[in-house]
Amino acid sequence: MPPVSLTSGEAALRAIALGALYATAIALAVAFSPANGFVHPEKLAHITKTVSLQK
């Protein structure tokens, strides 16, 4: 299989797309990290059930 040659525009577009994917992955990891106060769904269900029972 011959090597694929990219033009500079295609290479730049691939670099931008790859950077966007990495940025999205990092943003999701930070947003859902326990250090940022992310509450796991099981705990959230327990908390909301407890709050609704207190009313």
Describe this entry's structure for a reader.
The protein has helices at 8-31, 41-54. The protein starts with 7 loop residues before the first helix and ends with a helix. It is built from two helices and no strands. It has one domain (8-53). The chain is an all-alpha fold and 55 residues long. The model has no long low-confidence stretch (mean pLDDT 76).
Which terms summarize this structure?
mainly alpha, 2 helices, single chain, 55 residues
Short account of what is shown:
This is Secreted protein. The protein has 55 residues and is mainly alpha-helical.
- For the secondary structure, the number of strands is 0
Number of helices: 2
Radius of gyration: 22 Å
Give the overall shape.
rod-shaped
Helix content: 55-70%
Low-confidence segments = none
Structural class: mainly alpha
Spatial separation of the terminal alpha carbons: 69 Å
Fraction in beta strands: under 5%
Number of domains: 1
Helix-strand topology string: HH
Query: Mind describing the biggest β-sheet?
Result: none
Nearest-integer average pLDDT: 76
Keywords: Membrane, Transmembrane, Transmembrane helix
Protein name: Secreted protein
Organism: Magnetospirillum gryphiswaldense (strain DSM 6361 / JCM 21280 / NBRC 15271 / MSR-1)
Transmembrane segments: 12-33
